[in-house]
């Protein structure tokens, strides 16, 4: 089964056993939670269910694997001929999730 879910204002295509990285969620490590899917389909795309906005009765089980900081992202600003340049960066807080089941 394939499903489309929305977490942290982003949409993800998931299958059972996938591991995804999302914006930080306030969940404990090894805790489980479930969300409803926006779209559910089988692998071939024959049995397709589209929600408005969510598919009624769909249930995606997720398990929190890790809370961590991502790669550093560099932000460079410059104005030509004005002797202005600025170099900053940040590391986003992320959560690694494992898809336990898609129903």
Strand count = 10
Main sheet, how many strands, which sense, barrel? 4 strands, antiparallel
Proportion in helices: under 10%
**Biggest sheet, strands in spatial order?**
2-1-5-6
For the termini, the CA-CA separation is 8 Å
In percent terms, what proportion of residues is strand?
Answer: over 45%
What does this protein structure show overall?
With 103 residues, the protein is mainly beta. Helix content is 0%, strand content 59%. It has no helices and ten strands. It has strands spanning 2-7, 10-15, 19-23, 32-35, 39-41, 48-50, 60-69, 73-79, 84-90, 93-102. The strands form three sheets. It has a four-stranded antiparallel beta sheet with strand order 2-1-5-6, with no helix packed on it. Strand 5 (39-41) and strand 6 form a beta hairpin. It starts with a strand and ends with a strand. The mean pLDDT is 94.
Short summary:
The chain is mainly β and 103 residues long. Helices cover 0% and strands 59% of the residues.
Task: Quickly list its features.
4-stranded antiparallel beta sheet, mainly beta, elongated, 103 residues, single chain, 0% helix, 10 strands
Question: Helix and strand layout, with pairings?
Answer:
Blueprint: E1 2-7, E2 10-15, E3 19-23, E4 32-35, E5 39-41, E6 48-50, E7 60-69, E8 73-79, E9 84-90, E10 93-102
Antiparallel strand pairs: 1-2, 1-5, 3-10, 4-7, 5-6, 7-10, 8-9
